[in-house]
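Cross-posted from the bioinformatics board.
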Amino acid sequence: MSTTPTLSASELSVSFGPREALTAVSFELSAGTFAGVLGPNGAGKTTLLRALLGTLDHRGSVRLAGRPAYVPQAGAIDTAFPVDALGVVLMGRYPRLGWRRRPGSEDRRRALEILEQVGLSAQGRMSFGALSGGQRQRVLVGRALAQEGDVILLDEPLTGVDGPSAAVLLDVFEAQRRAGRTVVMTTHDLAQAARVCDRLLLLNRTLVADGRTDQVFRPEVLRRAYSGELLLIDGQTALLDDAHHHDHDHGS
Amino acid sequence: MLEALDAPYLQRALLAGLALSVPLGLLGCWIVLRELAFFAHAVGVATFPGVVIGIALPGVGPFVGALIAALGFSAAVSASETDHRLRGGTVTGLALAVALALGAVLLTASGAGAAPVERLLFGSLLAISSGDVLRCLAGAAVTVVALGLLRARLAATTFDAGWAGPAGARERPTAAILLVLVSLVVVCALPAVGSLLVSALLVVPAATARLMVARVGPMLVWSIVLCAAETVAGVALAQSLDLPPGAATALVAGLVFALVAGGQAVAKRIPRPVAT
């Protein structure tokens, strides 16, 4: 696998008015990496993804080699919009369409392939709003796959998703990583990140730690990011603070 | 009735009505899907001061005056609604009140009288000129081409602006183009249906179509078909019963919506047979 970075940030900082949301974040990710971005609420995970996509003003530099694909958090989507699952996946072809922005038969064929990949070939003509939460998330990941990006940025793609859908999505992410794409996923689930990611970025408004699971999942490192916060570990919460912290050694 | 079709005024009315049905039906879908019904109503009414100024100033005319007022209104609303403290149509309502007050003041000051105002408010499809018909056809052509090119972008931004921006379909320019098109078509439609009733044809056929289908493509088609059919029915009703054609068309549209919505509500209450 190539070691040339496909995604890098150098001294990346983002401010919202007087509030510094991210300060001097630097890292490099090479092709074929599945990176998990961890951190408590308000740590700057979504801000980092948006800065990497170039949709937020920032200081420092970002380098994204090739095309990005993106799965935002599901909250802002209009589920009443009259579109079926196939139509949502076809939206993902938008950046690749010509000036008339009309998807052709090749785009349609690719969208149908992707629906099969996310296990929804039978639901292609179903209204997006009529799908279950997990199915919707699979469709939204399908839309990102249709972008055929070299770097795939996923903002909490597994939050609130049922077990079978999460399993399908994790398989899809792993397949993308094996195909040489750089996958970056924000998550609150440390154990899940430890299982599926080969690189972890621990954030709390700055980069607290960056490395493999055994380098990041150390009590003193986690405490710096999560002190006094609730952690979600394998779907269960545990309190980590100075008095009653639970150390979870997920070293591999 | 069919003999009446020989009358040039009726031919102009039907040609303008059918031509307007296409942009009104298409734009109406995006207005309904983007929850802009109040804006669509307001932009028609907000042309009031522009019309008064256009009539008062030789060389400007009511069409240009109305277009400038509508575009100014759209720009002001668009720029101000970025302030998250004033969401939910607050700025639209405020600008609407200011435009109405300004129009009333200008009307008094100009001494133009009530006749042009009545025509502005209610229109008269049966009294429109050949120039009005040409403006309707031109507005329809511009809107069809623009919306054809914008369709994928509008779908992406309306469905999920958070994804669409990074994918290259930014929301703000898309919304701005849509508001310009709404302003243009509303002004073209003023002589036919008036500022108070234009929103009926912008919103009601599209809202009815939304109840009937579950995808954007068929919704666009149904919206145009309903708008055209309701316009023809409204003109026929106006001819037969000597009613104002704009009001008759709006009432027909409202009745069709009520029938579809009511029919669906009744259908939901009827228990379906259980398969054994």
